[in-house]
Design a protein that fits this description.
- Strand 1 and strand 2 form a beta hairpin.
- Helix 4 packs across helix 5.
- The protein has five helices and two strands.
- The protein is elongated and about 75 Å long.
- A two-stranded antiparallel sheet has the order 1-2.
- The protein is mainly alpha-helical.
């Protein structure tokens, strides 16, 4: 329900407008959807749950992208600012295999985390696609 106060020119209460909505059907639908798509909270990469073979469920597409990137970077022995171009390209390849680059703004997020430019990430993707075409 919503209540709106109606005041006169002097600010005195002159009346109220009360609106009531029956949202019980929407609440039941929300509860049903919540039961179908329950997700675990996003885990930090330092936790033990990031070992190989553990499925990580996320609450949003952005969380999925960050979780995949955190997972791959957590398994890297080198920090991004110390990585070679080949090491960064390997990370981009792994992210591409996970479908991360199908997500909007993923290139800029990956570029930022790998301390590279967006054009470099696009170049890596192009080289990876060329290599895949030659291999098939």
């Amino acid at each position: 329900s919503s209540t709106f106060f109606i005041r006169d020119d002097d600010g005195n209460l002159a009346g109220m407008l009360c609106l009531n909505f029956d949202v019980s059907a929407l609440s039941r639908a929300r509860d049903t959807l919540d039961a179908l798509v329950r997700v675990a909270p996003l885990q930090e990469p330092e936790s033990d749950a990031w070992s190989d073979g553990v499925e990580n469920l996320t609450g949003s597409v952005e969380d999925l992208m960050h979780a995949a990137l955190n997972d791959i970077l957590a398994h890297s022995r080198v920090r991004p600012n110390r990585m070679t171009a080949k090491e960064k390209m390997d990370i981009v390849r792994k992210l591409k295999e996970k479908g991360i680059f199908l997500l909007k703004s993923s290139v800029s997020v990956v570029a930022s985390r790998l301390e590279s430019s967006e054009s470099t990430i696009y170049r890596y993707l192009s080289l990876i696609e060329q290599h895949e075409r030659k291999g098939n």
